């Protein structure tokens, strides 16, 4: 077994703060306040299995404080140690030896040792218990306890992304004793981890109250407690932070950033995201099965203008199916606004304009059902309306259906017979930071296009060459070969245009100035794990 990675706790800690370590430590030592976070999404469940920390991203953000993982991501999504002191990937990428910190306990006082890690790995391997994030866990074949602080995790095939899986939010380590006490059905409401904060009170969908865990193995928590309070309306969140009712808010509407920047008491925190937004196209529809039609739709929409004007510069037009900062991103194209070229492509595809200017082929008008959530993605309804208006200018009738955000996901992940949309707004957040995971989740062929998608290939895209390239990107021994394959896969997907590519937004939160250490991660999450309040 060859050592490929060795990370120390001190090095990891140095990377985990937006402030110099000494500053955060001094701040934390004097901290005794309770931080109140006004979240845009409610916390419903707190279990890495059984749906994984719903709702999203609120549940994951709370989990970052309650649970530790073997590995973690720093602010730039570099992998750093957490419960592991060090990890070593084998040369064949089929096993990883983990050296654990000693003396770590869960909130219930039971040991967080190699046996507990084995329990957690095997629990997440179980498809009946862990029904989500399957691409992260399917490759793992088992875990072996070597001694109290050493465990080896094995995979059934080369899996270069194993460290990313262990650092992913679903890699949260739970107390086996708590699972036994509350059962698989009860743990999500009674979570017990080994993180810096433990649950004091939980009213799902409304409020979660955490208190500092005095026996935490790492740095002392920077606050005596953290309250997660669900505040759905953006204007209400803005009012709450300007009046001091809360200390932190997320999902700041970019048109209101100027209002906050004028306050001496509030700081706006922003980070480019890893979630490209687009309109997934239902390729089972005859019109959208034609690549010329899909390319024409992309040419018809002024994406760069949307990024600049609608989002006031807090967004960019994409140049790849992956976001700019995703691991393995390659610039493979650009969004071009050319409606004359779009019309020419549609003519080549057999569409002609009627007396009303709308296109038709074989007597059928080119009418598309466009599903968009209301308040789930930044500016979702406004962007959908701009897209529909732009498509109308080239003779395409796009009919918008607005869907309440809580119900939106069910409309996307349907079996083929029940897909009601032709185009649906979607953005995938690669929360393990891997571009390979991102592309595979959205564009790897489903096993059965008639049923529900395996992951998020909701449009039923299918390209054997892309499938093979993604396999190489996931398993080639050398990183250069993996990145080369991932780059070629991006080129093919971009050329096939299974999405109408839209914008990549920045994640924007706001923090009152008596709180330090709040970070906004590229993967949407506002992270209070290292926050401190005097």
Description of the structure:
Belongs to the bacterial solute-binding protein 5 family. Its main location: periplasm. This is Solute-binding protein family 5 domain-containing protein. Keywords: Signal. One of its GO terms (cellular component) is outer membrane-bounded periplasmic space. With 534 residues, the protein is an alpha+beta fold. It folds into three domains: 131 residues, Periplasmic binding protein-like II (D-Maltodextrin-Binding Protein, domain 2), CATH 3.40.190.10; 109 residues, Dipeptide-binding Protein, Domain 1 (Dipeptide-binding Protein, domain 1); 232 residues, Dipeptide-binding Protein, Domain 3 (Dipeptide-binding Protein, domain 3), CATH 3.10.105.10. Helices cover 30% and strands 24% of the residues. The strands form six sheets. Strands 1, 8, 9, 10, 11, 12, 13, 17, 18, 19 and 20 form an eleven-stranded mixed β-sheet that branches. Strands 4-5-7-6 form a four-stranded antiparallel β-sheet, with helices on one face. Helix 10 runs antiparallel to helix 12, helix 15 runs antiparallel to helix 16 and helix 16 runs antiparallel to helix 17. 51% of the residues are buried.
Secondary-structure topology with pairs:
Blueprint: H1 9-15, H2 21-29, E1 34-39, H3 58-66, E2 71-73, E3 79-81, E4 84-89, E5 95-100, H4 114-125, H5 134-137, E6 140-147, E7 150-155, H6 162-167, H7 176-186, E8 197-203, E9 207-212, E10 225-230, H8 234-243, E11 248-249, H9 257-261, E12 266-281, H10 291-299, H11 303-310, E13 315-316, H12 339-348, E14 352-353, E15 359-361, E16 364-365, E17 367-374, H13 380-393, E18 397-404, H14 405-412, E19 423-427, H15 435-443, H16 464-475, H17 479-496, E20 499-512, E21 515-516, E22 519-520, E23 526-527, E24 532-533
Parallel strand pairs: 1-10, 1-11, 17-18, 17-19
Antiparallel strand pairs: 2-3, 4-5, 5-7, 6-7, 8-9, 9-10, 11-20, 12-19, 12-20, 13-20, 14-15, 15-16, 21-24, 22-23
Helix pairs in contact: 10-12, 15-16, 15-17, 16-17
Organism: Aquibium oceanicum
Signal peptide: 1-28
Family: Belongs to the bacterial solute-binding protein 5 family.
